Amino acid sequence: MATLVLLIGDRATSEGSLAAYLALRQANVVFEIERWREGHLPGLDGPWLPEPPVLLVDQVPIWDSLAIGEFLAEHVPGLWPQDPRARAVARSVAHEAHAGFRGLRTFLPLDLLSSFGPPGRLPRSAEHDIDGVACLWRSCRREFGAGGPFLFGAFTLADAMFAPISLRLVTGGVPLDAVSRDYVATIAALPSLGEWVEAARTEHGSLRERAVPLALEPGSPRQRVAPASDPAAPGGSSTDAPKPPTPSGPSATVKPIGTGTRRRH
Predict the structure, then answer these.
(1) Which of 18-27, 82-91, 159-168, 219-228 comes out lowest in average pLDDT?
(2) Which residues have C-beta within 8 Å of that of residue 217, sequence separation ≥ 6?
(3) Residue 145: how many CB atoms within 10 A of its CB?
(4) How confident is the model at residue 225 (pLDDT cuts 50, 70, 90)?
(5) pLDDT of 113-141, one tens digit each?
(6) Which 3 state secondary structure label does DSSP give 107?
(7) Does the residue 245 lie in any domain?
(8) Which CATH number goes with the domain that contains 123?
(9) What's the CA gap between 224 and 246, in Å, rounded?
(10) Looking at the domain assignment, is residue 196 inside a domain?
(11) Residue 160's domain spans which residues?
(12) How far apart, in whole angstroms, are the C-alpha atoms of residue 237 and residue 83?
């Protein structure tokens, strides 16, 4: 079994780190978390370095949240829909959430420890993107969402990619239609998201403006994140540990790179 270490940025503001964390929790694998720092990436230190998140798989770096998700999908079933048509749309939607909606991102920066009132008059680019996000959500829920509360019924990588956007809308006080409100509430209720937000609060201390040491300083022990079924999970037992929405049962495993893993889809 491969050793997985997720190198993350600021929990309060790094949307890629959040998306990668949700994907790993959903994959139900054992992994560790450490704050990114120079010197973490074997063979990649130099004038150019990828930004977090970076997943080290037996010290082999995989960077970018969607690339991390695609790697996990090679080992863990269920991270993409099983139906080919739904899977094709889910991949397109995930890529759109990952790289698109620049107007929304510019006007509504991610900050999990802050909240704002209704934004009033929106810039045209932000308004266009918010309408586009809501349209995608309604379409996915209508066409593919019969099996559960997520975009494609069960949780997929598309939901991991859209989670930071949904939180931007919440903290920005953006009014939403009924379908979008329900979907945002579903994302907000994820136990894994609750873990992340609580860790962000601890990381920054009780006062956001006060400079405090990071919870995971370079050189400190890594934080181990065990799946809900792992008796060693935080809390001391499988019943006390935070549980991702799916899958249930034994934890999944990731093989070392180069051991003949085949793509599932």
Answers:
(1) 219-228
(2) 35
(3) 20
(4) confident
(5) 987 777 778 899 999 999 999 999 999 99
(6) helix
(7) yes
(8) 1.20.1050.10
(9) 20
(10) no
(11) 84-189
(12) 35
